[in-house]
Design brief:
The protein is α/β, with parallel strands linked by helices. Helix content is 40%, strand content 20%. It binds glutamine.
């Protein structure tokens, strides 16, 4: 039996990954091999008896070694799909999560009913996944995207060009609203860092490879919600709204921040398919 066929290599890799406690071992083995061969995953099944050459084997084994060190797959391939779009990612940005599609999708649905041009701010844009996918699905939107990390902004700019929306986005390096002074927005979106100090200790090993500034929400995980809720009313148009992703179990605390602020009239919680409260949206009074 040839050890170097696609099917044998996948079998071996899956076993290794599984043994080291990696959850989606088979999927990861396939994604990485498809990446090495520059093919879709389905092709691995169609051509399962194809024999890999030495160069391919070497590249595959190198990637597997790094995966066994718990480097996330998306950092190894440099890509992650979000809202059906293939975003470039590096360790300078948080890897877009499927959960965050609830935020992007919800905002898209709300914006599709507006007939006029809209201004949107994305605070802590990271890879740009949220605002770029909104731009791909809604016409007539103009975005201001902010990040405190210059390196993250480079990735977001790269993605904006990749998806041909660079003319609709202005990028700002800075801290939350700070570089947006004087501007008014119809929508403010954010997936702020929200992991609390306590939860940090229990994160999956992979997540610890991601930028800490994209994750660390301070002692109780609410640090950025406090600042965003406090400043958002000054930056929102009449009837404008704020939509933020929620950390695990944060919905009541953030709702309270919004209600106590006094400048919002109406709050919605958007749940994911598992019924988890993923997003809070609040309309300005
Ligand atoms: N959803 C991410 C995680 O659980 C956290 C993202 C964030 O802090 N905004 O790893």
């Amino acid at each position: 039996m040839n050890e170097n066929t696609i099917s044998q290599q996948l079998r071996k890799a899956t076993e290794q990954l599984k043994k080291s406690g990696i959850e989606n071992a088979r999927l990861d083995a396939e994604v990485l091999l498809a990446y090495v061969l520059n093919k879709r995953r389905l092709a691995l099944y169609v051509q399962s008896e194809k024999v890999l050459n030495e160069k391919e084997l070497k590249r595959y084994h190198n990637l597997l070694k790094r995966r066994l060190e718990r480097v996330p797959v998306a950092y190894l391939t440099g890509h992650k799909e979000f809202m059906g779009l293939n975003f470039a990612v590096t360790p300078d940005v948080l890897i877009p999560r499927p959960d965050t599609e609830i935020l992007a999708q919800g905002v898209i649905e709300h914006l599709q009913s507006y007939k006029r041009a809209l201004k949107l701010a994305d605070l802590g844009t990271g890879s740009g996944a949220i605002c770029i996918s909104i731009l791909k699905f809604v016409e007539n939107v103009e975005v201001s995207a902010v990040d405190i990390s210059k390196n993250a902004l480079e990735i977001a700019e790269f993605n904006a060009e990749k998806f041909n929306v660079e003319d609709k986005i202005k990028f700002y390096e800075g801290n939350l609203f700070e570089p947006l002074k004087g501007q008014i927005f119809d929508v403010i979106v954010s997936n702020p860092p929200y992991i609390s100090a306590k939860d940090f200790a229990n994160l999956q090993l992979e997540v610890r490879d991601e930028p800490r500034i994209a994750l660390d929400g301070g002692k109780d995980g609410l640090k950025f919600y406090r600042r965003i809720v406090a400043d958002a009313p000054k930056f929102l148009s009449d009837e404008g709204f704020l939509a933020m992703e929620l950390g695990f179990n944060h919905s009541e605390a953030v709702r309270q921040l919004i209600e106590e602020n006094g400048n919002f009239k109406h709050v919605q919680i958007w749940k994911d398919l598992a019924g988890i409260e993923r997003v809070i949206a609040a309309w300005k009074k």
